């Protein structure tokens, strides 16, 4: 009897799909865990600093006062009989020029026209000048770091502007008489001047305004207040005294 021996042939093992799947899953997981690209956005431009209005107002405020002084002088109201404090006597309707007044443009006004128009015109320019100085006080008050007097000085000047405007409006509309007490007429501009003086002294004490400029401003204020018709000269002195404030705040001193 013949015996047949069966030999087992080696069978090559097929690659297991179970082994390949984790590999593919690992690759997929590796792809998902990749760090996303960083998107670089352009940085927003830095906010520009607010403009320093004090630099402009230090020039505009004395200039408006100078214009008021020229109008008072041209209209014949800058005589010694006028009230003090910045030509505020123009609002009082006091002695006006008689006869004719020749303006720079060549026009001629008789005494009645001057008496009617002078208080209204000069009073309006006085209100504008007072408002400009009040705004200047508010702008300069923001420069103070140690002596925080900007807010009360601005409130004082604003009250003075309101009083000046009320007197002018009352006379322009006829609600107030042509002749008013000097204290009522001078009170508004005096309060504005007190607010300006407060801020200028504080700036000088902090070293932000030269002492010489503060002294010159005092001389200009005195020339404005004196009843000698020196209002334009006082305004020019104030313009020169406030010139250091027209430079940037760091260079004002």
How many DSSP helices?
A: 7
**Gyration radius over CA:** 40 Å
Sheet with the most strands: spatial strand order: 1-2
**Helix and strand element order:** HHEEHHHHH
* Strands, count: 2
Helix content: 55-70%
Spatial shape:
globular
Overall structural domain count: 1
Give a short synopsis of this structure.
By secondary structure, the chain is mainly alpha-helical. It has seven helices and two strands; from the N terminus they run H-H-E-E-H-H-H-H-H.
List the helices and strands and how they pair.
Layout: H1 17-32, H2 53-74, E1 100-102, E2 108-110, H3 111-141, H4 150-172, H5 182-205, H6 211-225, H7 231-241
Description of the structure:
With 253 residues, the chain is an all-alpha fold. It has one domain. Helices cover 56% and strands 2% of the residues. The chain contains 7 helices and 2 strands, in the order ααββααααα. The chain has a two-stranded antiparallel sheet with strand order 1-2. Helix 3 packs antiparallel against helix 4 and helix 6 packs antiparallel against helix 7. It is globular and about 45 Å long. About 20% of the residues have low confidence.
Spell out the key features of this protein:
253 residues; mainly alpha; two-stranded antiparallel ribbon; 7 helices; 2 strands; 56% helix; globular
